[in-house]
Design a protein that fits this description.
Number of strands: 16
Bound molecules: zinc ion
Strand content: 5-15%
CATH class of the largest domain: Alpha Beta
Oligomer: single chain
Structural class: alpha/beta
Helix content: 25-40%
Shape: globular
Radius of gyration: 24 Å
Number of domains: 2
Distance between the termini: 22 Å
CATH superfamily of the largest domain: Queuine tRNA-ribosyltransferase-like
């Protein structure tokens, strides 16, 4: 895959020395979690992505000006974004900054003064970003707003004029952004965002950006659309994007990566394979052969939801702890071939049945777990996570197992995306 893949940063870190046998964090983690914990790029020999997408709206409260100095930005006391993200000095990983327009989608315009073109460019420059994305405003069909009197959430449908205004704001900011970049001779590579709501508006936005002089453009707001719609836009902009880099924001359509690439897309970002690890879809672990498996839930016995349901069924906390430990022990024994699959399933499901589930989430769970156990996908994975923690990677439990599984998924996606024949009908893996 020639496409450059960026992982959006949501501070997904974990304790590199978490003890899976005792289920305890390391002392070093406890003393200083931020400094001790690892990002995915620290866990593997080769980072499972080409770069990191860092959205200002996610970290707005953490980006501050140094005391007595109106110029130096810091994030957790770091004056360089690469240091903050713990990227080794000799790493080829790139950092792309954007505003994270989803953070202010409800507003009429990107809120000032933080999202002024001047401030955003200044942050990209001072914190040493490799790429800086212009200040955009998302075009959506509606936003949810709270009624000031009743406090109820209301759907506020955007008119055609309001949508056009958002496109206009985005283009105006892009123009100003590039001008300022030239004037101040900033080092980061500027990326202009195109927003739209149909093929015509996207095409016109792209044309404008290229006329302004952008060599790297990004299509925003595509998460809400089907792959065919995206391909429709890419088809429309074909005549204008020769020699231009094109980024797709937030979309991961596994079955269409090759199509996107052939239409001139050069990069994209998505945290989808990471987050699937702990979202309740039954597709939590991506095996090296491209098949998804359900992770096996063994929640902490102190889980409030579990406790509530257990109380209703006459179980004490001690009962729960015993069931929890039995489930963990059964899985470890199973991995060593000391217990058969039926007995393992009985023990797991006895505990699992205490989990309150939404609608049909619990259906077919036995079958899904059985498939995971019988196929033992973790045995055939050569990533650092699976090699080190074995069956723990498919146990759905706490940050250290769940995020490791997410990192594994990201690694697999990166390593084998080209050879996996992803189903084209797996339309939306954006999350
Ligand atoms: Zn693995």
């Amino acid at each position: 895959m020639k496409l450059k893949y960026f992982l959006p940063d949501w501070e997904d870190r974990l304790d590199p020395d978490f003890n899976f046998a005792t289920d305890k964090y390391s002392k070093k983690h406890d003393a200083d979690p931020y400094n001790y914990d690892f990002y995915a790029h620290q866990l593997f020999d080769k980072p499972p992505y080409d770069g990191i997408l860092f959205s200002l709206s996610v970290f707005q409260s953490k980006i501050t000006l140094k005391n007595g100095d109106n110029e130096t930005y810091t994030i957790r006391n770091h004056t360089n974004i690469r240091d903050y993200l713990k990227i080794p000095k000799d790493s080829s990983l790139k950092v792309m900054g954007d505003c994270g327009a989803f953070g202010y989608v409800k507003e009429k315009a990107p809120p000032l003064p933080f999202y002024s073109v001047e401030n955003v460019s200044n942050i990209y420059d001072k914190l040493g970003f490799d790429y800086g994305v212009s200040v955009d405003h998302l075009v959506v069909d509606y936003v949810m707003v709270r009624d000031e009197i009743t406090g109820k959430k209301l759907k506020n449908i955007l008119s055609r004029d309001e949508k056009d205004e958002r496109i206009e704001i985005t283009l105006k900011n892009a123009k100003k952004f590039l001008k300022l970049h030239n004037k101040k001779k900033y080092n980061f590579i500027p990326i202009g965002v195109a927003q739209g709501y149909d093929t015509d508006t996207y095409r016109e936005s792209v044309k404008s950006l290229i006329e302004m002089g952008y060599k790297y453009i990004a299509l925003g707001g595509l998460v809400q659309y089907k792959s065919d719609f995206i391909i429709g836009i890419l088809t429309e902009i074909q005549p204008f994007i020769k020699g231009i880099n094109v980024h797709l924001f937030g979309v991961l359509r596994p079955g269409h990566l090759n199509d996107f690439e052939s239409f001139g897309v050069t990069s994209f970002d998505s945290a989808s394979f990471l987050r699937k690890a702990w979202l309740r879809s039954g597709q939590n672990y991506l095996a090296p052969n491209g098949k998804w498996y359900a992770a096996i839930r063994v929640p902490q016995a102190t889980n409030p939801r579990l406790l509530k349901h257990a109380n209703l069924n006459g179980f004490s906390i001690d009962d729960l702890i015993k069931m929890e430990q039995d489930a963990l022990r059964a899985l470890i024994k199973y991995d060593k071939g000391k217990i058969n699959v039926d007995d393992t399933l009985d023990i797991i499901l006895k505990y699992d049945n205490l989990l309150l589930r939404d609608s049909n989430d619990g259906e077919n769970l036995k079958e899904k777990y059985e498939r995971t156990l019988l196929d033992r996908p973790w045995k055939s994975c050569s990533c650092n996570v699976c090699k080190k923690i074995g069956i723990h990677v498919i146990i759905f439990r706490g940050t250290n197992r769940n995020k490791r599984r997410g990192f594994h998924n990201t690694w697999i996606f990166r390593e084998v995306a080209e050879i996996i024949n992803f189903n084209k009908r797996e339309e939306n893996a954006d999350l």
